[in-house]
Amino acid sequence: MYNKSIFPMAAFCVLGAISSPLAAQTVDFSLTLEQSSNPGASYENMHAAGAGSQSSYAIGFQIEVTGIAGTPTTFDTPFASFCTELAEPVSTSSYTYDLDDVEGVASGRAGEIGTASSAIPAGGIGDLAAARVRALFDNHYQSTDLSEWTFSANSPSSQAFQLALWEVTHDVDLSLLNTSGSIYLGEQSSQSLTAGVALAQSWLDELVDVTTSYTSTTWDVWAIENVGDPGNQDILFATSIDSPESEAFSQYRASAVPEPSSTLLLALGGMLALVYRRR
Predict the structure, then answer these.
(1) 200 φ, ψ to 5°?
(2) Sorted alphabetically, which keywords does the UniProt record give (predicted)?
(3) Phi and psi at residue 197, in whole multiples of 5°?
(4) 165 domain-assigned
(5) 212 within domain boundaries
(6) Which residues are bridge partners to 28 per DSSP?
(7) How many CA atoms lie within 13 A of 194 on its CB side?
(8) Domain for residue 132, yes or no?
(9) 83: domain range?
(10) What is the pLDDT of residues 58-110, one digit of tens each?
(11) CA 93/CA 132 separation, integer angstroms
């Protein structure tokens, strides 16, 4: 559960070829809070399957990538990032994470009864949720610079994005208000909180027609998962398509995948050798 001494984020975020399995690449990064003048908001009565009802602190934060697969990086700015799960902590210390597919993110404690992430399939959020995540980023991920996001009652873009992201990763009905859903929000006590829910729901309504064939148009979305500690938060952020940052992440991601043609040739070579020996 959420512990402010660790990171003041959320009550829940504490809220045709032969190939081998994809190997994750490590991403070393440090976490930094957004400016203190831009606080998040504590949304009340968040109901989550397997975890009851609590307040959920929705906020954006920044990560600074310092290395990929042991190679130091030279990125100029941090990346505005958001929680994938409802029940994991995030520490402000430097950690090593795996760079992973969006489809498989949040698999650490997914399906584990008694956690707010129990609604996520054990293998991760899956193809449809991943497509919806990419569409949400394309439509409403404002900037990699967190200072360009808004936190006001009239335009709570950071909080709304986090709420919408939680709904997409944990539920299929795309409704923060449906009391039959895997997660939903009860009545809020202030206009500011109500505005955040309304904005998030308007974005979720846009995702109804998104299918698994959706591909990113503006942002490449990256998932990172804590190495060796499934009790820590999995994180999503984005880089602009065709940017140097996207190219760097793509390069290291691709390096974890064996070339299908080479693997297939090796397999065929082995079969031919076996036939030759039998002759």
Answers:
(1) -60, -40
(2) Signal
(3) -65, -45
(4) yes
(5) yes
(6) 67, 96
(7) 5
(8) yes
(9) 25-278
(10) 888 888 888 888 888 888 888 999 999 887 777 666 667 888 889 988 877 78
(11) 30
